[in-house]
Amino acid sequence: MSEKEMMYDSILARSFSKQEQKKLRYVAIFCCFLIALSFCTVFKPYLGPLPVLNLRLSIDVSDLKMLIVKDTSTSHMDSTNSQRIEVSDAIPKKIDELVCNITERSDLCEINHDIRIDGRSATIYFASTHEHEANSSWNIRPYARKYDRVAMSRAKEWSVKSVQQLQLPHCTQNHSIPAVVFSSGGYSGNHFHDFSDILIPLYITSRQFNGQVQFIVTDKHSWWINKFQNVIRNLSNYDIIDIDKETDIHCFTRGIVGLKRHDRELRIDPSTSPYYSIKDFREFIRSSYSLKKATAIKLKDGDQNKIKPGLLIISRKRTRTFTNTGKIAEMGRKLGFQVVVTEAESNLSRFAETVNSCDVFLGVHGAGLTNMIFLPERAVFIQVVPFGGFEWLARTDYEEPSKQMNMRYLEYKIKIEESSLLQQYPIDHQVIKDPSSIGKQGWKVFRSVYMERQNVQLDLNRFRSTLLKALELLHQ
């Protein structure tokens, strides 16, 4: 023990009893604990990253503050000239703000402030009130499949940029409504991606405006706009602006860049703002295409001789086709169905009516099954799963979405004897005996073998029980 320590002990011994010294030590420990707690409270915002995946830029007449919270997932959005601040400071009351939500599926920037859109430079400007916050920018590709590099490479990159008021480009066209900027590039043209990547996210993002919104489309394909004109016209009361061809500076009171997408394919999370559901979307689709049948037929004992439920068989021309479609249809008729065999056509309005008129929907796994969206409530959806390890795709792409859409789901997994692959490869080939080894070689190899080279010839005796199950479900 040092001389100083001995001196302090001596002073304590003379001034306080042993009991009083013990109490004093407890008080000292308690005071140290309070001091430490105070330091943690004050400096907590600087001790680690905040568990929030968004970016906020708040604009006020008296103050401008910015919050960047980095997403750990790969993102197509980059930011520059930013500072990190406490969340509570980023959301003062009664201000305009920019919120950029960075998620695994898509990036979206909502600007609750005057914006100016320059199609020539692919830039969206808004004014900053502080010089040191000017010239900050964020890059975004407004297509809702950001984890897919191929899809994103087909969507144009845009900049969202804050500048000083005097640096804003001059407006040549003024609009009094909000704008939504999105890309119709990516995988557009594939029916599954048309809905999962564009139409459902567009509905989630823009339905809140009740038609009072201007769609600004980049990577515009006229054929795509024409195909889905019923949906687009029901979401917006205004003609689309093909921004890539515009030389004007378009000015809006507010805007959204990108589309909001929920985690899973062909689905909407009703617990997430703006609190729509897939049921809401399907009702919206029925309204857009004037579809009359809301619910599938409910059969009663003895009805089958009088009322025939509709069975729609989706045929395909190139790959994963039924090679015995005629025999499948004949068996369906003998079991009491009114059978329709058709391939998805370019006239979507007419095809939507055909799908909506049926009670049972049958097809091999593929984009054409997305047309189940047009089916009435409680219809029976039969997915034929090809050979080769399609279980995960079948489940996530169609089984789970169909159940959320209030359909009765049935699945028929073919055996190798029902696949055309048996005529292309010997029985001991890896393609036949070990599909997982092919899958491990990557998506392109899997697709080229099991999706592009395979057709299906159903075993009618085996498949018959699936159609009988469909009839049973229509009695429930």
What does this structure look like?
It is globular and about 75 Å long. The chain has 476 residues and is α/β, with parallel strands linked by helices. The protein has helices spanning 3-15, 18-43, 87-90, 149-153, 191-206, 222-227, 229-235, 278-288, 325-334, 348-356, 391-404, 430-433, 435-439, 443-451, 460-474, and strands at residues 54-59, 64-68, 96-102, 107-111, 115-118, 123-128, 136-140, 158-164, 173-174, 179-183, 214-218, 241-242, 249-252, 255-257, 310-314, 338-342, 360-364, 380-385, 408-413. The protein has 2 domains: 54-288, no CATH class; 303-474, Rossmann fold. The strands form 3 sheets. Strands 2-1-3-4-14-10-11-12 form an 8-stranded mixed beta sheet. A 6-stranded mixed beta sheet has the order 7-8-6-5-13-9, with no helix packed on it. It is 32% helix and 20% strand. The termini are far apart.
Characteristics of this structure?
2 domains; 6-stranded mixed β-sheet; alpha/beta; 15 helices; disordered N terminus; 476 residues; Rossmann fold; 8-stranded mixed β-sheet
Q: Order of strands across the biggest sheet?
A: 2-1-3-4-14-10-11-12
Helix content: 25-40%
Instruction: Compute the CA-based radius of gyration.
Output: 31 Å
Average of per-residue pLDDT values: 84
Give the overall silhouette.
globular
Class from helix and strand fractions: alpha/beta
Please report which band the strand proportion falls in: under 5%, 5-15%, 15-25%, 25-35%, 35-45% or over 45%: 15-25%
Low-confidence stretches: 1-16, 42-96
Major sheet attributes: 8 strands, mixed
Number of domains: 2
Distance between the termini: 88 Å
The number of helices is 15
Total DSSP E strands: 19
